[in-house]
């Protein structure tokens, strides 16, 4: 391909709206452009990256025996009512109506569609097992779309669904997908970890995440020196010995205008209270219902642990402000467990709290000297918080925390969807049973951002060769026709040899062209100049090296092919 035809629009200035390095680099390199919050166009170079990721994913899915399909992006509400997720999925589900006022959503995932498809077609054990996958655009109306395509609203996902006759078969299918994922992420060239995970809104009971290691990742991986790894969400926290002091003074109300965070409250109070006695109240909603979770002011809630509470149920998420106002009549920032109309579930971190402070469930007011059993019923105490670095992991060693970006997620689903949507089959003994399912996602567009987050320097992107927009670039400098002719010949011979080469025919000044190509992260750069050509030489530089090599023009094709193939 010729650069002049590729709509390359690199930016010199650093886009101010982007906080994350990968987002800044993708905008500067002209891989993506934002259309609306969390909605992006992919420009030719960026789309080449996505296509290379897609090719690897498709090859490995096919090799694992999965069959590609393409399901509709727009899904009717009925199947979501059948699975029960029309309510549960919450505001992330983008809902719309057609001209007949019928409800639809734009698919954030496809369990409902694929299960109803299978339900209408499969009748016998002879038709099992199989695995269907697609590579398709999803839409999730994320609460905070950010970091460019890392957490966008519209994104490309590979989603696969396995169908088996029994749990044993389903776990084998799970294992095959796990192996395929390992091959995919190894081939892409990412450094990643596989961690035990919570199964989120999807449900089921075996699930692992593939996390790309990156300092700015949103997911937290808990590890120990002895090799234990899990999603931080999954680490059980220990319960302290009971040593709650007796209640002291009477409960009182304090006017706290404008105070909405624990930190503000701690600074506002006349007497400094430790975080354990400044209680935080969070409203959580899930498949079973909505509840108030209370924790020490400095503790963070684990949504996975919240999902395990019978009052909340699977797919727990933080309630939206309007949901809290509807249920309690007060907004976030002034909530508390006293006279709370929702079930209250308490974390172990507040079990020993006495004379504590909390919101009054009235805007601009907090309560002081509150005591369990006196001012409110003794709640049920359980493990709700995220573990901290240094606490002991289940293997008995101190936890270390590391950040990661979730690029893949595999679940064993069991029969949750097949039961809800009547996807059954008749086994060899003529008994009718629900099909055992698994589902397996890969964030195709997120991988492009994750790869950049993991591989860059001050000059720009350093793409892993397997997903670079081009493997190599041939750059003729100046206006000398012989230089251009040599460049063209080399470009053609390398292309013929099966190497994905870009001919940079944009006639940029050397400095500008070098800066642009470094920014774009193309792994191999070949420069043809009049000066080198007079000595029958050409220049080669790898993106990862500072050293330029001079190669004999006569051997250039062979030497370059070898250098490029070696990396
Ligand atoms: P997260 O915890 O990051 O929100 P998730 O658990 O909601 O992810 P899944 O439902 O498992 O994600 O979706 C499968 C894959 O799709 C994820 O592993 C991730 O790589 C990708 N993905 C999910 N949400 C987004 C998004 N908003 N933007 C880009 N990719 C996404
Ligand atoms: Mg999500």
Mean pLDDT: 94
What's the overall geometry?
Answer: globular
Largest sheet: 9 strands, mixed
The radius of gyration is 28 Å
- Distance from N terminus to C terminus (CA atoms, Å) equals 21 Å
- Tell me the total number of β-strands: 31
Count of discrete alpha- or pi-helical segments spanning 4 or more residues: 15
Unreliable parts = 199-204
Assign the structural class, choosing from mainly alpha, mainly beta, alpha/beta, alpha+beta, or little secondary structure. Answer: alpha+beta
What is the helix content? 25-40%
Description:
By secondary structure, the chain is α+β, with helices and mostly antiparallel strands. The chain contains 15 helices and 31 strands. Strand 11 (about 220-225) and strand 12 form a beta hairpin. The two termini are about 20 Å apart. Residues about 200-205 have low confidence and may be disordered. The site of adenosine-5'-triphosphate has 16 residues, from strand 8, strand 21, strand 24 and helix 11.
Q: Could you write a compact summary of the structure shown?
A:
The protein is α+β, with helices and mostly antiparallel strands and about 575 residues long.
Primary descriptors:
binds magnesium ion; nine-stranded mixed sheet; binds adenosine-5'-triphosphate; 31 strands; alpha+beta; single chain; 15 helices
What topology emerges from the helices and strands here?
Layout lengths: L20 H8 L3 E5 L2 E4 L1 H20 L3 E2 L5 E3 H7 L1 H4 L5 E4 L5 E4 L4 H9 L10 E10 L14 E11 L2 H22 L3 E5 L9 E8 L5 E5 L5 E3 L20 E4 L6 H7 L10 E7 L4 E7 L6 H5 L9 E2 L2 H8 L15 E4 L8 E4 L5 E6 L9 E3 L17 E15 L1 H5 L3 E3 L5 E3 L1 E8 H11 L1 E2 L2 E2 L10 E5 L4 H16 L4 E3 L6 H11 L3 E5 L1 H5 L2 E6 L6 E4 L3 H11 L1
Bound molecules: adenosine-5'-triphosphate (ATP) and magnesium ion.
């Amino acid at each position: 391909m010729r650069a002049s035809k590729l709509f390359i629009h690199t930016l010199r200035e650093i886009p101010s709206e982007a906080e994350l390095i990968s987002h800044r680099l993708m905008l500067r390199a002209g891989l993506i452009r934002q259309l609306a919050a969390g909605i992006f166009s992919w420009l030719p170079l960026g789309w080449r990256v996505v296509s290379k990721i897609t090719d690897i994913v498709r090859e490995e899915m096919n090799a694992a025996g999965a069959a590609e399909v393409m399901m509709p992006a727009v899904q009717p509400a009925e199947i979501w009512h059948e699975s029960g997720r029309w309510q549960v999925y919450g505001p992330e589900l983008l809902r719309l109506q057609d001209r007949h006022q019928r409800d639809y959503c734009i698919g954030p995932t496809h369990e409902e569609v694929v299960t109803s498809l299978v339900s209408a077609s499969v009748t016998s054990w002879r038709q099992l097992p199989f695995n269907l996958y697609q590579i398709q655009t999803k839409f999730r109306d994320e609460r905070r779309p950010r970091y460019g395509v890392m957490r966008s609203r519209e994104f490309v996902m590979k989603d696969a669904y396995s169908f088996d006759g029994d749990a044993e078969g389903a776990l084998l299918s799970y294992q095959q997908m796990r192996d395929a994922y390992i091959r995919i992420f190894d081939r892409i060239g990412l450094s990643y970890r596989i961690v035990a995970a919570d199964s989120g809104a999807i449900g089921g009971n075996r699930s692992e995440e593939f996390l790309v290691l990156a300092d700015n990742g949103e997911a937290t991986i808990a590890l120990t020196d002895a090799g234990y790894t899990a999603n931080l969400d999954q680490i059980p926290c220990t319960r302290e010995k009971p040593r709650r002091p007796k209640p002291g003074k009477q409960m009182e109300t304090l006017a706290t205008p404008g105070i909405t965070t624990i930190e503000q409250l701690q600074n506002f109070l006349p007497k400094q209270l430790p975080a354990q006695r400044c209680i935080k109240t969070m409203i959580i909603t899930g498949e079973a219902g909505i509840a108030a979770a209370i924790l020490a002011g400095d503790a963070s809630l684990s949504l996975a642990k919240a999902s395990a509470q019978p009052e909340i149920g699977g797919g727990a998420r933080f309630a939206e402000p309007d949901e809290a106002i509807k249920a309690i009549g007060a907004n976030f920032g002034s909530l508390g467990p006293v006279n709370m109309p929702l079930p209250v579930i308490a974390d172990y971190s507040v079990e020993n709290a006495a004379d504590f402070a909390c919101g009054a469930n009235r805007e601009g007011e907090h309560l002081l000297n509150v005591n369990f059993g006196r001012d409110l019923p003794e709640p049920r105490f359980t493990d709700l918080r995220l573990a901290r670095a240094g606490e002991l992991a289940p293997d008995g060693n101190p936890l270390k925390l590391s950040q990661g970006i979730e690029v893949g997620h595999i679940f064993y689903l069991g029969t949750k969807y097949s039961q809800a949507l009547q996807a059954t089959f008749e086994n060899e003994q003529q008994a009718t049973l629900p099909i055992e399912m698994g589902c397996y996602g890969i964030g195709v567009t997120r991988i492009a951002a994750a790869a950049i987050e993991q591989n860059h320097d001050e000059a720009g992107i350093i793409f892993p060769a397997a997903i670079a927009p081009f493997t190599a670039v041939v750059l003729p400098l100046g206006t000398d026709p012989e230089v251009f002719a040599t460049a063209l010949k080399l470009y053609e011979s390398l292309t013929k040899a099966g190497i994905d080469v870009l001919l940079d025919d944009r006639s940029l000044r050397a400095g500008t062209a070098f800066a642009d190509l470094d920014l774009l992260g193309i792994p191999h750069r070949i420069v043809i100049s009049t000066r080198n050509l007079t000595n029958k030489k050409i220049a080669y530089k790898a993106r990862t090296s500072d050293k330029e090599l001079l190669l004999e023009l006569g051997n250039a094709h062979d030497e370059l092919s070898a250098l490029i193939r070696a990396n």
